[in-house]
Amino acid sequence: MLRHTYEGQDCNLARSLEVIGERWTLLIIRSALLGTSRFDQFLSHLDIARNVLSSRLNRLVEQGLMERVPYQDKPVRHEYRLTPAGRDLTRAVVALMQWGDRNLPQELGPPRRADHIGCEGTVEVELRCTHCGRIVHDEEVDVRPIR
Predict the structure, then answer these.
(1) Is 3 within the bounds of a domain?
(2) Which of 109, 86, 108 is nearest to 97 (CA)?
């Protein structure tokens, strides 16, 4: 992981990766987007070690991306639900899925796709200019410092 100080590194991407850049973190977020909410469900869907899952879930709660919500009293058990900040990662997860589909294709095709709940159409992530409203292609993007 990246270091926790940003001395000489004023970068919004570095700050984001400090929270979500570890491999299991985005897979946990993806599973939560698919409807997984309980510890044992995450374990079975991800084939992850218990201690690693516990650590990552705790960090996601600390970072405000998930919340622990009790669903049982005796013994006390919790669900892990995405917060609005966690749900806001939907675009990033879908963009990475689509990048993988384009650049690392599988013979059987993609294992998942993002569908629009309202009409069942397929959802695609796109870049759009805030000034003219036009869809922007990758080669038309210039990432530059602004301060």
Answers:
(1) no
(2) 109
